[in-house]
Every structure is written in C-alpha cells, then in structure tokens.
Amino acid sequence: MANKLLNQNTVIKNLKKSIIWISLGLSLFVHLGANAQMMSKKDILFLTSEWKGERFADGRPKVSDDILERFKSVTIEEAWGVLRNEGYHNQFEGGWKPLHDDVPIVGRALTALYTPNRPDVSDNIKKEGENNGRIGNTNSWPIDMLQEGDVYVADAFGKIVNGTLIGDNLGNAIYSKSKTGVVFNSSSRDMEGLSEIEGFNAFVRDWHPSFLNEVMLLSINSPVRMGAVTVLPGDIVLAKKEGVVFVPAHLAEKVVVTSEVVRLRDLFGITRLKQGRYTPGQIDNKWSDGIEKDFSKWLKDHMDELPVPKEQIQELLKNRMW
C-alpha cells in the first residue's frame, strides 16, 4: 500500500510538472503572437528567477556595467571552472570563426531564434510586426532593440549558405547601439567591411558571400541553443579566442570575484617564486598559514599597483582571516 501511494504521488508530481511546462509553452506562443515575436516579461522573469538584481523594461537581467567591465579580464578557463563548481556543465561552446582573434566580446545576451522559412508563418510574423510598429526586414528587429552593453546572440540552426544574418551595414548599426558584437550559430557576410568597425567582433560558424534567404525570425528574447549551451536573455557572454562561455546572470559576480582572487594569488605566487622566497612545491600545494599571512600583507603593501580594483582588494582583505 505504501509503495502504491508513493507511486501515485510521483505520478501526480510529474503530471504537475508537465502541466507547468505545457502552460509555459502555450503562454510563450500566445505572447509571441501578441508582441511581434517578443517573449513576454512574465516568462523571462520565470526563466531567470535566480537573478535578484536590476532588470531591463523587457525583463532581462541587467548585470551592472561595473561587473561587465571587470569581466573583460576573466579568462575562459576561470569562468568555466566556477560554473562547473556551481553545477553548470554546459556553458561553453567552441568551433567558431571569429572576425578578430584578439578582440574579446563581453556583454548581456539579447537572443533571437531563427528557423527555416515557412511562408504562412513568416507572412503572419511580418504582418504582426508591422501592426506593432516594426520596420524593415525581420533580421533587423532584434538590432533595433539593442542597448549599450548588449551582445546579439542568434541561433539560425547553423545555416551557412544563405544564412548570413548580417553584413557590414547591419554590423555598423549593431556596434553603434551595443558597442560590442555578435555571436551567431550561422554565418555572416562582408568580412572585410566588418573588420573596419573598430571594437566590433563577430563569432560565427563561417563566412559566406551569399544573402540571407529562406530563414525566418521566430522569437526574440527567448531561450536559444548555441551548440551545447542553452542561452537565456540577460546571460553574460564572454567570447575570446578559445570560444564562448555563457554565464547565467545570477552567477556573473561570483565568476568575476573568483577570477580576481585567482589572478592575485597567481601573481603573488609567481612573484615569490622569482624572489626565491618559496619553493614550487610550497606554492603549488595548499598554502600554509604563514604563506596566507604573507599573501594578505603583500595585498596591503601593493594595493595600488595590482590589476584588480582597489575596492575589491579591500573587500577581499575584510573577509580574510589573516
């Protein structure tokens, strides 16, 4: 009897979960139709409920500009390591062909989902967009919404030929609004023209001279799949030569602070090794209390010279035991 009741409870719980997800899916499609492919603020709040800070009017998490600036010094490995420790194992995607190898992209994701064209659906989407004041082709709609610090993240099902979401005209428009770049699970055209936009970068699957064709915009600010990663609107995009890490907004500050601590400890260790103060075995293993105290003193003595904001070092020292 107990096992039977347990099984019944399990079935009921699973049924409730299924109803919730079905309701979310129906709600998503209703809101998309009502707002020219925009995911509703209510659904964005539901999907990003771990974020407790400021948000944009559309509901996207608004990680602070200070955190974004500090993110530029975070390495792919550091971000990946923190996320793995937090249980997020599917946040990195490689295999890109960036416009520049040496221009990192950091910013808040504004997402767009493109699918193979279906005339009846795409016609309705365009009509609904016109009724809601949308101007131009649908691939310009997400660009119109960009704000400074955003990164345009689009999944166009990996299409290369006729999958070029932007050329140099749209690239200039994107950079003028966001001051960052794009990450596309598809292709781009006008590589030469885009390379002339100082500060702009594009991580794409490939480059091709064709024009965008037989592709339709299905949704804006909805979850998108970028290879092995599920990306939500407001995630922090960290794109460097090795690839792209997508950081959930609620973990952004933890990634930055952990990176800064690692950077300081590495710098201290290298400095002391060059001075012959400690052996490699002492630095590469768990530090003794004496080394930890020496590290704290070194932080205080060199606070104005270190590659981490002074305020962050003071906060670190405040929370240390030594």
Automatic annotation (TrEMBL):
Q: What keywords tag this UniProt record?
A: Magnesium, Metal-binding
Membrane-spanning intervals of the chain:
none
Full protein name: Regulator of RNase E activity RraA
Native species: Saonia flava
* GO MF entries: metal ion binding
Q: Which domain of life is it from?
A: Bacteria
Report residues binding Mg(2+).
Answer: 190
Give yes or no: UniProt keyword Nucleotidyltransferase.
no
Q: Name the needed cofactors.
A: Mg(2+)
* One Pfam family of this chain: RraA-like
Looking up SUPFAM superfamilies in the UniProt record yields:
RraA-like
